[in-house]
Structure of Transposase:
Amino acid sequence: MKMFVDVPTVYLCADVVDFRKSINGLAALVEAELELPVLSGALFVFCNKGRDKLKLLYWDNTGFALWYKRLDKHKFKWPKLMSPTMTLTEQQLHWLLGGYDVIGHSKIDIAGKQLL
């Protein structure tokens, strides 16, 4: 199931985020630290220090929405970035949510077997 379709822009936040932050804290981080317009309709993707949780924040013209995903036993393949953000395509977002590396496109290891 594709939850996010026709998203104008997807920004991956390079740094780990304190996951006690919710909508207001993440929105403030987007505007103050990333210097991006939080009300643009873009999707902002954040990861925790353990790399097993993601939060996705977006504005849908009626209010903010916050989407949360936690992996049971694995870690997300989070790219190493030199800049504060990375722009993802819609396909790369789906790869990330599906457990793939957005750069190199390799799947997470489930039960000791590499799945492609």
Residues 27 and 38 are 6 Å apart (CA to CA). The first helix runs from residue 23 to 32. The beta strands are 10-13, 43-47, 53-59, 64-70, 85-88, 109-110, 113-114. The first strand starts at residue 10 and ends at 13.
